[in-house]
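Known limitations

Structure tokens in this collection are predictions and should be treated as such. Users comparing against experimental data should check residue numbering before alignment. To illustrate the layout, the record for DUF1772 domain-containing protein is reproduced below. The input appears on top and the generated tokens appear beneath it.
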Amino acid sequence: MTTGLVAGVCGLYQHTIMRGLARTDDRTFVSAFQAIDRAIMNAWFMIGFMGALVFTGLATVLHLAQDVRSVLPWLIVAFALYLVTFGLTMAVNVPLNEAIKAAGDPAGIADLGEVRHEFNEAKWTAYNLVRTITTAVAFGVLCWALVISGSAD
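Generated tokens:
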């Protein structure tokens, strides 16, 4: 469930939030992105984001000792895909998010166009597309593992 929720968040950013923000002026972009990034950092999001990694990893480890290991390869694939999502988030998207927030209050920024340019929307969005794909596929793989698990009885 947590992996599916994260796939939804990444997808929502990809097809709605970033597309909408791309159509705004520099002040609106910087202000809105800062506000959205501050708002997403909450317990609900973190439970999903960290939970997907922990729960998929735990499911994988717990299936190492099972007699029926037919789901193990699928769990490993899902975990690896989510690990890619997690790694990209920490290596690319979070640093870009932090940089735009560090620019400060948009009302006090002299060159909002430069802040937006330095943020690099194209890079953020490209890496988010990869995160969207990896989490969606990981969720699909986990669903398949559940189907296999149910038919293994």
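For this record: Helices lie at 2-22, 26-40, 43-62, 72-102, 112-119, 121-151. The longest helix spans residues 72-102. Please report discrepancies through the issue tracker.
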